[in-house]
Amino acid sequence: MEAKSFSVWDYVVFSALFVISCGIGIFFAIKERKKATSREFLVGGRQMSFGPVALSLTASFMSAVTVLGTPSEVYRFGASFILFFISYTFVIIFTSELFLPVFYRSGITSTYEYLQLRFNKVVRYAATVIYIVQTVRGSGCLTGFDLWGSVFATGIVCTFYCTLGGLKAVVWTDAFQMIVMIVGFLTVLIQGSAHNGGLQNVLEQASNGSRLHIVDFDVDPLRRHTLWTISVGGTFTWLGIYGVNQSTIQRCISCKTEKHAKLALYFNLLGLWIILVCAVFSGLIMYSHFKDCDPWTSGMISAPDQAVLVGDSRKEMMVISSLLPGLLFGILCTSMAVAASLLGGVVQAALSIHGMCGGPMLGLFSLGLVFPFVNWKGALGGLITGITLSFWVAIGAFIYPAPDSKTWPLPLSTEQCFQSNVTTAAPPELSNRPTIADTWYSLSYLYYSAVGCLGCIIAGVIISFITGHQRGKDVDPLLIRPVCNLFCFWSKKYKTLCWCGVQHDRGTEQDNLENGGAWKQGDESVLQNGLQQEGLTHVPGYDPKDKSHDNMALEKMTYF
């Protein structure tokens, strides 16, 4: 058995994808040339429908990582990865019902604008720096296949169509790539099943190889993948990616109404499930095909998920290019490739990085939306605490890998390989380890986000009370999501108490929006952060018949 490289037709298809992507950018550059405004570029004029946005959301965060990483994960560790459907469900519900309404109704073009409205510029800039770090590190997940050529070719093409066509080009390119992914997966599933004796035979061989042991109820947080690490830790990890990530929210607020934005998220959930199922079955087919001669342990390939994975930086480039020069951003991304390659497989590396940065960011936005008494000092202190904790556990795990009993893959065979090519994969050396290495540093990588998020929230609440909590009457109700209403619906007294002084009692949120002026400022400055007050005194665009919000009326609103 020989390792195969790209053939002529592979390069033809690869080039065709680049040409079509560039063509989409050119099309929108010409079509929208008379609407060349920053709002049109960043949020597509807020006139997108839910269909292409749903496809774009799915393709954005389930493209390279899933196509390359998930089948490898299933091949090595079994089909327990399918349990991520639980995480995805919780993530979409929380995003659409908790985070999205606040972001959409505030008329922002960036999630970091929210942080300035809720806290101040210092918190906004701190979060922006973390986002840049997360994106640069995430875009450094590279491995195999003509590394430098892939990096430069993909980087040039992505920058080209993003710069020319803006968000509309990104969304429609993602939609096209989503279709390509589905077709590719179906091809693999049909051809792979046929070459390996049919789907029933694939499942039988996977079962014999212990790949179908899916549900593990072990509550040990040190175990790499169990029902609890995936459903709980995975929810925190992906909520940091979906709920408060600029790339996700930017797509959602580009929709023409809030109803369309929510539909985009829920239809995206269907896409996530489809891609997940396809990826898992692809991994089972891989095991059926290579069960007697594993190409990794036999030395045919250098990594278990060898291929090219250039992180989905094309979307983030639109935002970061305004903060960093494009050749500089590329250098930083490439520099991170080496570090990312040492974090494990593609999926583990990507989700570890997102967890390290996304968890504290999730905690920061949760402080702003759910805890009205938290002040900017608590928010900033919580963010620093969360980042410290998540980086501490992740770096510790990098220096002292978890015991192989917690993370070592299922058995792989090389019985039918040429013996001259076989190499032995030995567990990592665990000598001279401190006690903390077998506890704190051995935590499942899916809990990195939970550590950062909970650390941020707890520290933020404590610091706010120590330094003097935010007065409720100084907080715009539109910047707070009163989740306490769900638990105190039976008592107006307790609801008012949980509002912490925020003036939700001036009518319901929708009544306020329907009347066109949710919150009138008093003598006190609402934000006390130097922001202009005019942008928060009127929130038009609410349609009482559709019970949704239209962003067109927000076009003339200014916040700075």
Based on the model shown, name its key terms.
560 residues; mainly alpha; two-stranded antiparallel sheet; 60% helix; 1% strand
What can you tell me about this protein's structure?
Keywords: Cell membrane, Ion transport, Membrane, Sodium, Sodium transport, Transmembrane, Transmembrane helix, Transport. This is Solute carrier family 5 member 12. GO terms for molecular function: lactate transmembrane transporter activity; symporter activity. It is a single chain. By secondary structure, the chain is mainly α. The chain is 60% helix and 1% strand. The chain has 21 helices and two strands. It has helices at residues 8-31, 38-43, 50-62, 64-77, 84-105, 111-118, 121-138, 147-195, 199-208, 227-242, 246-252, 258-290, 313-320, 326-341, 346-370, 376-399, 404-407, 448-467, 484-487, 492-498, 509-515, and strands at 542-543, 548-549. It has a two-stranded antiparallel ribbon with strand order 1-2. Strand 1 and strand 2 (548-549) form a beta hairpin. The longest helix has 49 residues, at 147-195. It is globular. Mean pLDDT is 77; it is low at 307-324, 507-540 and 551-560.
Helix and strand topology:
Elements: H1 8-31, H2 38-43, H3 50-62, H4 64-77, H5 84-105, H6 111-118, H7 121-138, H8 147-195, H9 199-208, H10 227-242, H11 246-252, H12 258-290, H13 313-320, H14 326-341, H15 346-370, H16 376-399, H17 404-407, H18 448-467, H19 484-487, H20 492-498, H21 509-515, E1 542-543, E2 548-549
Antiparallel strand pairs: 1-2
Transmembrane segments: 12-30, 50-69, 81-104, 125-145, 151-171, 178-194, 226-244, 265-289, 323-343, 349-371, 378-400, 445-466
Family: Belongs to the sodium:solute symporter (SSF) (TC 2.A.21) family.
Keywords: Cell membrane, Ion transport, Membrane, Sodium, Sodium transport, Transmembrane, Transmembrane helix, Transport
